[in-house]
Request: fold
Amino acid sequence: MTALLIVLVGAAIAWVPRWMRSDEKEIDDYIASKKEGYVEKAAEKLGLSLVSGREPIVIGGFDFDSSDVLYRRGKDDRKYRSSLYTLSALFFTRNGICAVRKSFSLTEDLEHETVKEIPYCEIDDAKVVCEEKTFGTDKIKYFCFVITANGAQQLRVPAAQDAVLDGVCEDIRSAAANVKA
Reply:
């Protein structure tokens, strides 16, 4: 009888925290609500003159670079997520890129937004880098979109690596080379 009681208590300890956690769909829905209309709000706030033919893009992901964030693994998809999400709207102007970067916490009521203008003539490179972070015994592999200018990193945003983002990097490098030529 005591053994059965111990097994039931152990099962409750293991199951209750999992049952009470937000699932991946709730987290993804919350992030989608924060991203919705972000480009329009940022463009209106800044009053940017956009290059015709080049639409602004939004990139973002869970931030594994920052300190003081919590990590957890999804209960269904087993993917790691952090408590900080960062997104950036990239606007392509005649003279460069205007990046509106927003970070928000999934566990606290915290938001931080910055605006950075990067002239094409100063851009050295734009690329997607792959990095790893060790959490417990697991290695988390994640990607970041990085723009360097004048030898220093000017923009770093978590992102999913895909062909569209690789094309954006190529377009940025090409525009920077054209201005410098």
In short: Residues 2-20 form the longest helix (19 residues).
